[in-house]
Specification:
The protein has 217 residues and is α+β, with helices and mostly antiparallel strands. It has a domain of 145 residues: Electron Transport, Fmn-binding Protein, Chain A (Pnp Oxidase, Chain A), CATH 2.30.110.10. Strands 1, 2, 3, 4, 5, 6, 7, 8 and 9 form a nine-stranded antiparallel beta sheet that branches. Bound molecules: flavin mononucleotide (FMN). Flavin mononucleotide binds next to strand 2, strand 4 and helix 2.
């Protein structure tokens, strides 16, 4: 087994003692609690507090996970933007069931979401795309996301081509790029507690209302 230096991993652990999550702190709507935890992460200046690990189901039936950035939250769910032809785009097209995990480790908070993904309307992608820095807009046109490419040079050559193509022009949103919303059917809030006896409250959407269960840690 690889270890560095000996026993480092074995002895690496944190005591979770910042707070609790009791039923009286659980609002009827889980998005209200999510927003409170996200605001908590923002106010503590955690790095990339809107990063979430997105799990999708691969074309071969095996799971795939990667990080994306949360860019909005409403009745449709948790919004993110990407290349529709990427691996995740193809996987979502074939099976829209997905999960997402937010980890705010310094706050001893984890939120796990299960649900179904739908595309956002093109107008939302266009509006968000227009707000992105120009370099990121060029990057979206350059990247055939998730495809095998011959090397770094291929990217840099295409970057120069796209910069020339759009020189002195507004850069439009690529037709292959846009947003998705993960609409939750289940959201679990995990609050780290001492002795590994954590609080876990799971919201499940049943008949139009959210049912709350406490899970064993
Ligand atoms: C912090 C962080 C944020 C990221 N945000 C996004 C994002 O919002 N959209 C995106 O397409 N890729 C994002 N990525 C890159 C993805 O993790 C991933 O490499 C890429 O989307 C290709 O995934 P796929 O091949 O499974 O489709 C991010 C990566 C990191 C580390």
């Amino acid at each position: 087994m690889i270890d560095f230096p000996p026993n480092t991993l074995r002895d690496l652990r944190v005591s979770y003692d910042l707070d609790n999550l009791t039923e009286d702190k659980a609002p009827a709507d889980p998005q209200v609690l999510f927003q409170a935890w996200l605001e908590d992460a923002l106010s503590h200046k955690l790095p990339e507090p809107n990063a979430m690990t997105l799990g999708t189901i691969g074309l071969d039936g095996a799971p795939t996970a990667r990080t994306v950035l949360l860019k909005g939250l409403d009745d449709q769910g948790f919004h993110f933007y990407t290349n529709y032809e990427s691996r995740k785009g193809q996987e979502i097209a074939s099976n829209p069931a997905a999960s997402a995990v937010f980890l705010w480790t310094q706050r001893h908070h984890q939120v796990s979401i299960r649900g179904v993904i739908e595309k956002l309307p093109p107008a939302e992608a266009e509006s968000y795309f227009a707000s992105r820095p120009r370099g990121h807009q060029i990057g979206a046109w350059v990247s055939e996301q998730s495809q095998v490419i011959p090397g770094r040079e291929w990217l840099e050559t295409r970057q120069l081509e796209m910069e020339a193509r759009f020189a002195d022009k507004e850069i439009p949103c690529p037709p292959f790029w846009g947003g998705y919303a993960l609409k939750p059917t289940q959201i679990e809030f995990w609050q780290g507690r001492v002795s590994r006896l954590h609080d876990r409250l799971r919201y499940t959407r049943v008949g139009g209302v959210w049912k709350i269960d406490r899970l064993s840690p």
